Amino acid sequence: MRRRVVKAGLSTIGALSLFLVNAMPVFGATQTANDTPQSVSPSNSQIFTPSPQAEQFVNYMITSGLIKEFALGPNGQLTLKEPLSLIQQKYHLDSAQMSDLEYILNESQEYADTSPSVGRISPQLFYKNGIIYFTHSEVVATLFAAASLGPEAVVAALEALGTLTGGPIGTAIVAILSAIGAPSLAQFTYYIIQAYYNNEGVYLGISWNGIFPNIVTGTWK
């Protein structure tokens, strides 16, 4: 399984590199590993620990191919390429899995309908420095397989991990995705692939310029 995933990851590196040249974030510039403020580190931010429910569902999304069924709507919210009833039949989802899937989609829609300047998405929402760290084991377990499929799959995996884990950190993940928009995750997707091969973790967060969020992302050891 790992050998197949590695091969898939290698095949995406060239395509992602070309995509990153043309990709523009929804808000502001991207802060990368080289220009992230020195105060940002795992010691003063939060290392994300997904719940067993979140890990189980994301792993099923990846192994079954369900993660390929996600698309992004006009407001950046997660949608499905086919109706829920067909998805349920195609991937043999039981009632618990359907409940998880519907919950993820509903949460994505709720945040997509919220303006960063007036609603739930605000600097006060995010944990400490607004940076969330994923360990190398989390990169191996879930994020790399999603990154091999592209930014949309990464959005789906992060939405599921954040929504199903819940709590302040899970909520922050979902809100970060809503604030920065999917196009901003192109660089993060590339960092995931680097982290996989370099035995590193990745981080994702936001710095604020007034009411305008800017993505902060990179790798860490």
TrEMBL record:
It comes from the Bacteria. Residues 1-28 form the signal peptide. Keywords: Signal. This is Uncharacterized protein. The lineage of its organism: Bacteria, Bacillati, Bacillota, Bacilli, Bacillales.
